[in-house]
Amino acid sequence: MLIKKITRINRKQEVFVLFFDPIPFLRLKTPFIVRAFHWNALAACGIAVREATNSDDSFLRTLYRSIREPERAWVPWSDDEWGRFVDLQFQARSASYSHQFPELLRYILETDGNPRESIWIHETPQELRLVDLALLPEVRNQGIGTAALKDIQSDATKRSRPVVLHVYSDNPALRLYQRMGFSTVRQSDGRNEMRWQP
Predict the structure, then answer these.
(1) pLDDT at 65 exceeding the cut of 90
(2) pLDDT tens for residues 84-98?
(3) DSSP 3-state helix, strand, coil percentages of the chain (rounded to 5)?
(4) What is the CATH number of the domain that holds 84?
(5) pLDDT level of residue 49 (50, 70, 90 thresholds)
(6) Does some domain include residue 131?
(7) For residue 32, is it within any domain?
(8) Which of 4, 111, 130, 169 is most buried when burial is the number of CB atoms within 10 A of its CB?
(9) Structural domain span for residue 121
(10) Would the pTM count as exceeding 0.85?
(11) Residue 118 burial class via C-beta count within 10 angstroms: exposed 0-12, middle 13-18, buried 19 and up
(12) How many CA atoms lie within 13 Å of 4's alpha carbon, on the beta-carbon side?
């Protein structure tokens, strides 16, 4: 179970803190065979896609830290304190995703053999859920996210399933999802549930 605590710094600034509640529970795995995804639009951009392995842990931590970096200015912490905080948050998120999405597919996107982005997808008989799409700062706004979404939408069309995701209203990616045809179907505490229907 994931518990999210919002620590308010002032009226406009908040730091999101994730806690993983390790109460044991049983979870049934999804009874279907996951089919491969086709990354044609990404390939046209010179991006290679492969499944993530345990050896990618260091890169994924670096990527996660880059995502949380804007929040660092809101707290008076040392480098060590911030580093420990982000590591704990990374571990909590990883544990939560493992329980929420037992068939999670994790992909690493590479340019010239160097990891630059990650895509996490969970497929059920009802939908394709884009759990996470993250890019290093130096490769953002170069059309990579657009190409990834085109490929996911293409496979969703072949499967006749919608693509769903969650994104906060202050996340710049919201504009990308809107441009790619996603519509907000539910909103709560600044968090948008979005859906694209083939």
Answers:
(1) yes
(2) 999 999 999 999 998
(3) 35, 30, 30
(4) 3.40.630.30
(5) very high
(6) yes
(7) no
(8) 130
(9) 2-22+37-196
(10) no
(11) buried
(12) 8
